[in-house]
Amino acid sequence: MAGRVNMVLVVLVAASVLHRTAAETYEVGNELSWRVPPNTTAYSTWASAYTFRVGDTLVFTFTTGSHDVAKVTKEAFDACNSSSPLTMLNTGPANYTLNSTGENYFFCAMGSHCSQGQKLSISVSASSSESPASPPGTTSTPSPPPPPSSAPSLAAATFSVIFMSIATGILW
User: Fold this and answer.
1) How far separated are the first and last CA of the chain, in Å rounded?
2) What is the side-by-side order of every strand in the sheet holding 25-27?
3) Cβ–Cβ < 8 Å for 62, 28
4) pLDDT in tens, 119-169
5) What's the CA angle centered on 79, arms 77 and 81, to 5 degrees?
6) What is the pLDDT of residue 22?
7) How far, in Å, CA of 84 to CA of 73, rounded?
8) Per DSSP, what are the bridge partners of residue 64?
């Protein structure tokens, strides 16, 4: 019995390694989608449940012509000022891939939708395969790029071997 419990734990660990090596896709607002929310905290509450990483994709589901997505600066976000968006997505559903760390600000530029709470601020962390930046005030000499990672394929191979071993009863 202890062997089976250990094997289940190994399978769960392997599955979790495989799960986070790939970028995630997030449906902004889940069931709410991208529309004027029932309250001004709906999207910040939604975002607080997730950890966004470089490479992840946000999917803004909306009706074209009724809503849009403006990626803006913090100043524009705070003021709901859509005069100079960094990016404008007009056709729904719209995908936006998070390509750098830091804060990202989005809102709907239609009418007063932004001031009614149709706005999203998220913090993006480095992907699990990226190394952290050097602390401020330090310099580092760039090293040559590492060879392509085999971690996902190695994890998949390990998972497959364990699964087949369980299925054939070899491990107990």
Assistant:
1) 9
2) 25-27, 57-60, 94-97
3) no
4) 999 999 998 765 444 344 433 334 344 444 444 444 444 445 454 555 555
5) 75
6) 84
7) 9
8) 67
Q: With CA atoms as reference, report the closest residue to 98 among 123, 77, 117, 67.
A: 123
Task: Record the tokens describing residue 22, joined without a space.
Answer: 């790939």
DSSP letter at 116 equals T
Alpha-carbon dihedral 18, 13, 155, 8, rounded to 10 degrees: -120
Place of tokens 């190994």: 10
| pTM, full prediction | 0.65
pLDDT at 2: 57
Distance between CA atoms of 55 and 25, rounded to whole angstroms? Answer: 9
Burial, 134: exposed, middle or buried (Cβ in 10 Å; 0-12, 13-18, 19+)? exposed
Whether residue 93 is preceded by a cis peptide bond, meaning omega within 30 degrees of 0, is yes
Give the residues across from 124 on adjacent strands: 52, 102
Structure tokens at 112: 């007063």
